[in-house]
Design goal:
The structure is a single chain. By secondary structure, the chain is of the alpha+beta class. The chain has one domain. The strands form three sheets. Strands 1, 2, 3, 6, 7, 8, 11, 12 and 13 form a nine-stranded antiparallel beta sheet that branches. A hairpin with a 5-residue loop joins β7 and β8. The model has no long low-confidence stretch (mean pLDDT about 95).
Length: about 230
Amino acid sequence: MTENKNIIQGKTGPWELVIGLEVHAQVISKAKLFSGAATEFGADANAQVSFVDAAMPGMLPVINRVCVEQAIKTGLGINATVNTLSVFDRKNYFYADLPQGYQISQFTQPIVTGGHMTVDLADGSEKYIGITRLHLEQDAGKSMHDQDPRLSYIDLNRSGIALMEIVSEPDIRSSEEAAAYLKKLRAILRYLETCDGNMEEGSMRCDANVSVRRPGEPFGTRCEIKKR
């Protein structure tokens, strides 16, 4: 049997990391997911906000065909299944930069399911990492806390921009494997021209779901580390 090189020796015995990654990748599109507002990075605050993005009464979303095509292209690039039927849901939560009070997202019937990637590690080995799903959803706006000593400001330019959330299986067992997965996924997105991968602009962000277990035991309780 192959030795598990990722075992961590603790005071109470050996432990194994279990990591799953949720990547939010902004879709390359000239318009947002459900409105015709522009998506160019670096515009003046609140200069690219439609009535839909600002959640004005009576405004109805209209799906952007390009965003759907970009999600399909990405699904094929990660060896996944593109579903002929997908459904959008409302994810309700309150936050200052979410004017609707909910996020239009997908969960029960996403546009892409399954998939996998094989990544190359520094020691010459390969790691197979499964992908649970890719779904489309709206991005939220941005809260700015450095403009005033007492007040926070809201920029809704990012509100409604299309995101692809790419959710991996909990197949990752080390930070090295996580880094290799993210680097390869970013390279695929950039090659397909579905996301520019500019992390300094927030175009690609990652939430890490991390737990530990005794080697061979069932999965433990995960804790989410949000990186926005």
